[in-house]
Amino acid sequence: MLNPISVAFKKAKAEKRPALLTYTVAGDSSKKQSLDILKSISKNADILEVGVPHNTPVADGSQIQTSAYRAIKKGIKLKNIFKIVSDFKKFDKSKPIILMGYYNMIFQYGDNNFLNKCKTSGVNGLIVVDLPWPENKNFAKKCKKKSIYFIQLLSPTTTSKRLKKIIQNSHPMNYFISMLSTTGGKLKVSPREILKNYNRIKKINPKKEIVIGFGITDKTIGKLKSADGLVVGSAICKEITRSLNSRQNPVTNVGKLVRKLKNKIK
Amino acid sequence: MKLKKRVPVIDQGNSLGFWGGKFGGNFVPETLKKPIEDLEVLFNKLKKDKKFINERDKYFKNWVGSPTRFIKLENLTNHIGGAQIWSKVVSDANGGAHKIYNATVHCLLAKRSGKKIICGDTGAGYAGKMLSMAAKKFGLKCKIFMGAKDIARQKPNVKAMKKNGAEVIPVYSGSQTLVDAVSECMRFWVANCDTTAMCVGSTVGPAVFVRICGWSTSQISRELKVQLIDEFGAIPKKLKLYNCVGGGSSSFGFWNEFMDYDKRQVEFIGVEAGGPKKSKKHAAPLTYGSKIGILHGAAQYVNQNSDGQIEETESISAGLDYPGISPLHCFLKDTKRARYTAASDEEALTAYKLVTKFEKLRPSLEPSHAFFVALKEAKKLSKNTVVVINSCGDAYKDRGILEERLGKKYVKSN
Which chain A residues are closer than 8 Å to B179 by Cβ? Predict the structure, then answer.
């Protein structure tokens, strides 16, 4: 059976648009609300990235830190996160889910235990921010055995030689970090420049799906339409924070934002 | 797990940067892979380059002030009535602590790589103060990340950093201490690694930073070895080296040159921060059996919960208030080359009072932890045992805390 992530890319291609990937933090601002948010955006998002909050994140900007802090303060645990995923899958079985987090939490759970739990709850892919190539070789192999995509990160600082090696060893989907930044930084490079780098990567193996993330908002997403997929994370976390601060419902507001994002890339 | 002889410990990691196959490594975002590799190439080349070593030694001698004193604490020796008690007064170094060695080397490396800005983290403020001094000396712009809680409790060092022209950036996330400062500094580097060099303030972080820091602070034991031979004609038959351990930079540097000696001749004792007596929180992962986890790019023993969230620490000493510990020390612990124990906040204060009562020496709260254990153990040791405590920081920065805990007159009388 084809991984639902690949199905999602096929579907988006058939509609001549990039896949829309969203990132929200599990447990933000509560377990129930984060599940409701996933449900409300699943109509317009093609792939859902679910953040596993960690309290010493070395690559996240302030928006995602704020969301993660809110979730941890409410006591979110890994077991709750798996529950959120399996509950969501009961609601929409075919929508792919990618967990994104830091390696220590997987390491403490045990690689195999963690992957078994991913499998039974319905996780389709993993992004581990601080487990780069080649350190991730073994773990990526274990993912493959479970038919879970291990998604490699590529950055503007990744050398050409390294890019080739990583892509050669990669699963069907990879993630290109648009610029030198933590998540949610202001887009400090032009979309043209980002796409130039993206195309350089794409050429290495056109069959691999490459998504672009970091710094993408409803203002910039339209200019990056030619990519296989686009990830919006911090802008959504920011909307949750804004909604909470103004005593509005984050579920409806985030739903609206994601619909707007989708319309921009149609 | 085995310690090799005649190979510097900093070079005993495997090709992925793991000591003993499991401590250290490079758990970093992809963006940092290239800058870290560049730094590795540069450091590996320069540490064998005679010209670079001469340059380092020139700055250590003329600017840092080398060697720092090695003195006998006669009054304390008489008062305790056991082993001979000596101290290596590393706080003599320019700026008042061992952090100057690592800061100097990082600035020299930054200059060689053509970077114009250097960023660094700090807990007690020493790493930041020294980096700001070195940056000024070598004409680099300097940004220091420091937890908001530490800024409030280590004011004299903050003032010094600003005076040296550094920008001090308060970190409000998490516990607002060293652990968050290191995270924020790494995040800053992720976003600015094309223009900026990073200095990690201790023997922690991705493997190359552990190595650079250990290589730099080893100046302490190079000096001590010469001083011991000058004093005793040879390395004493029974030598015990006590040092506080937070991240582990001063202790590693204090021990490195003695690594190949049998531990029955030269014993290493690392003293971690046990925190307040009544609190369950501590900063002593080695003493209290914390599990291996990943923090700031390296696998190490670290205080964490069962889910892998890093736990908050508590210690009177900002410089030791860190949930993890250098991979080098994890390696020394598991190979049983060094022994680790902890002293509480109250015990450190007791030791501070005792040392300042008998000697013209004013160790900061960090080495006061080591003094406590050393003085306690020295009592039971023979007269021919030589106990040396690294007094790696000066208490000037702790004025506020000492005044609050021990009363005004105590601080003034010193």
Answer: 56
The burial class, CB within 10 Å (0-12 / 13-18 / 19+), for B45 is: exposed
Give contacts of B293 with chain A, Cβ < 8 Å: 104, 107-108
CB contact under 8 A, A132 and B183: no
CA angle A82, A85, A88 (to 5 degrees): 150
Strands annotated E in B245-374:
266-275, 292-295, 298-301, 338-344
Model confidence, pTM: 0.97
DSSP letters spanning A1-36: ---HHHHHHHHHHHTTSPEEEEEEETTSS-HHHHHH
Report residue B157 as tokens: 């060092």
The secondary structure element, H or E, covering residue B25 is none
Cβ–Cβ below 8 Å for B308 and A104: yes
CB contact under 8 A, A107 and B293: yes
Start-end of H helices in B282-343: 327-334
Whole-number pLDDT of residue A1: 82
The pLDDT tens digits for B61-97 are 999 999 999 999 999 999 999 999 999 999 999 999 9
A 65-94 near B (Cβ less than 8 A): 65, 69, 72, 77-78
CATH code where residue A141 lies: 3.20.20.70
B243 close to B124: Cβ distance less than 8 angstroms: no
Q: How many domains does the structure of chain A reveal?
A: 1
Q: Per CB distance under 8 Å, which residues of B are interface residues toward A?
A: 16, 25-35, 173-174, 179-180, 183, 186-187, 190-194, 291, 293-297, 304, 306-310
The angle at the Cα of A174, spanning A173 to A180, to the nearest 5 degrees, equals 160
Residues in chain A: 266
Smallest Cα distance from B278 to chain A, Å:
24
Handedness of CA A78, A252, A177, B111 (dihedral sign): negative
Q: What is the DSSP letter of B337?
A: S
Quick one: tokens of B51? 């010209």
Within 13 Å and on the Cβ side, how many CA atoms surround B411? Answer: 17
CB of A185 within 8 Å of a chain B CB? The answer is yes
The nearest CA of chain B is from the CA of A181 a distance in Å of: 4
Which amino acid, A250?
Answer: P
pLDDT tens per residue across span A154-171? 999 999 999 999 999 999
Question: Would the CB atoms of A155 and B186 count as touching at under 8 Å?
Answer: no
Written as six digits, the tokens of B176 are 């607002």
Residues of chain B positioned with their CB less than 8 A from the CB of A82: none
Kindly report, residue by residue over A183-233, the tens digit of the pLDDT: 988 888 999 999 999 999 999 999 999 999 999 999 999 999 999 999 999
Domain boundaries, chain B: 66-96+217-412
Fold of B66-96+217-412: Rossmann fold (3.40.50)
Q: Are strands B84-89 and B69-72 parallel, antiparallel or unpaired?
A: antiparallel
Strand, coil or helix: B95: coil
Catalytic residues of A: 49, 60
CA dist B344 and B275 (Å) reads 5
Distance CA B252, CA B258 (A): 10
User: Which of A226, A216, A223 is closest to A258 using CA atoms?
Assistant: A216
Q: Which of A78, A130, A156 sits opposite B27 (nearest CB)?
A: A130
Domain that holds residue A169: 4-265
Chain A positions in Cβ-Cβ contact with residue B313 (cut-off 8 Å): none
> Cα distance from A173 to chain B (closest Cα, Å)?
16
Residue B414 pLDDT grade (very low, low, confident, very high; cuts 50, 70, 90): very low
Residues in B touching A159 (Cβ below 8 Å): 34
ipTM, two decimals: 0.96
